Please model this.
Amino acid sequence: MTSAVDRWERTSSEAPAAVPIAAHRARSLRRAAGVLGLTAAGIGVLTLAGWLLGSPALTSVVPEAGATKANTSVSLFLIGVSLWLLSDPGHHRVPRGVGKLLALTAASVGAVTLGEYFFGWDLGIDQLLFREPPGAPLTSHPGRMAPITALSLLLLGVALLLLNRQTRIRALAPWLALVTIIAAIFALATHAFIAGEVFQAESYTVVALPTAIAIFLLAVGVLLAQPEHRLVAIVASDTPGGFAARRLLPVAVIVPLLLAWLRLEGQRAGWYGVGLGLAFLTTASITIIMCLVWWNASLLYNADIQRAAAEEQVRRSRDELEERVNERTAELAQVNQVLRAQVEERDKAQRALQEERDFVSAILDVVGALVVVLDREGRIIRFNRACEQVTGYSFAEVEGRLFWDLFLLPEEVDGVRAVFDALTAGQFPNRHENYWRTRSGGRRLIAWSNSVLIHEGEVRHVIATGIDITELRAAEDALNALNAELEQRVATRTAELRNAVERLEAEIRERQRAEEQNARLTEDLRQQAAELRAANEELESFSYSVSHDLRAPLRSIDGFSQAVLEDYADKLDETGQDYLRRVRRASQRMGQLIDDILKLSRVTRAEMRRETVDLSALARAISEELQQTEPDRRVEWHIAEGITAEGDPTLLRVVLDNLLGNAWKFTAHQPSPRIEFGARQEGGICVYYVRDNGVGFDPAYADKLFQAFQRLHTADEFTGSGIGLATVRRIVRRHGGRVWAEGAVGKGATFSFTLGS
Model:
């Protein structure tokens, strides 16, 4: 099914081409649009200042004609700044994005206000900035903008959002602006003509005069911001229609308003009745329209006369030009024969010169040595293939450049320029060596033999022929270094061999003693390991025994306390019952502490097995389990996809159980709880984190969170034993990682941890 947007774009693509408009005029119109936007934004600032200062003169100009609402002032400022940012296509992406965001905000305010009118809502945005007392003049709802204002903001916001889109749907923007202009004119006409009738109605909110003016300026600015649109281009073009439109449009807007105002004022003054007033208005309108039609017809008639005269002048000029062209053609034909002969001779000379140059270039390219030809300034004018292979530069890249700026090392420039100055002074031939830099950043040592070319007694060119001796020099240096090293090694090797036998004998004796010590140490370690295993087994047995022995009396205390509460409730006062309930809670809490201590002990002793664990799947499973414990509670979960880690799956589930469980617990009092699990990279290390917007904690106590039995909240506020985070730290440390916490009171907390490789 074809959408409405597709149908609009297809219809727009079949429309006639846009009217051409000069580039400078288009830029002027866009600048004018920006100025109108800033002017409307200024009106918004002035009216908002009126609310701040309590000045009716700023908010309404005419106090009895209604005031510009506070949210209207803010919206006018947003739309004005948005028009200024979006009207200039030269603005960067960020300012355009800000402009769209401002337009969307203002359009949203208009849409919400229309919803309040149509559906009877009261969303609280009308009195958000300033409270307008009930009974304000010309206001049906205190603080709420007029329906026409809300509709205009919505249309202007949508038009600005469409302004810089690359699709053809942007052609809707000027039409939305045109509708807004009509609404603004209606609001202005209301103030000009029928104010006495409307201003007496308390059930209708009137568009304030500053608001109507600002909306009119913004709508005109949106039109000017798209000068290539036919709606604007026809008026701004240099065609006769453009000239006529620019003369008629101001009259079409001003004259009806003026005539209607005169007719209304005369009727109010009692000069005539309704019928005579309408006759006056009709006669004046017909007369002015006839004058306008005659004026534009005369303009077009004069334009046609001038065009016909210009065409006749062009025709006579064309005939004269044809005669002169024919005469000139005959003269050029004779000159052309002479020039053709000269061109043929020059072409022969150029071919001969090119053949000679090609011959010389072929010889230079075949030569294995580097050949560079320089002018008197040191610029390269020849550069053979050997130079290209050594340096990595082509002749086209280096032609005309100073060779010492391109190839020489900084520390060798002065020496080479001294050699070059000597050559140009006539001291040749000479030889020298220096390094050349290559494109790749390397350096090559070149041995040069230099000569010059003399013309009319003056050195015109320097010819440098070089050989790359980098490898040869490196081989010589390496050979010298190798000979010296061999002599030194032969001198020291004998002494080393002499001492080696003595050291070997000492090492054998030392190794025998070390083997004996290793044997004794191994036996000691074996015994310590056996004792440690026995101690761990005894500790585990003791822990289970203690937990079992402690649970029995705790169950008795809890059970008998419950029995007393149930069987002797009528014999105990409220204080006694409260004491027994406290005894029960204490015994239950102690039982929970015993269980948590055993869990912490098992985490420390449990054998680890590493494998790839899908932490995202674990987090989703834990979140579902937590949600099932409180089905009526609504929490916004954000669990990143595809997060994996290498570690023990059972222990890592304990880590996420504790961290996500804490987040679930400490966001219980939040109206909109939010829990997030994700990962990030810091210095090449994967950092996993659990973030919530719960009660948070004082950063000064961040280190105490991971100590056993350390709690920052009372048991009445949040349940718990203070073992969970201590368990998390032990598991993370067993994996070779670390865990830390960040947060602030009332601003949530973030628990981050890493895992070793």
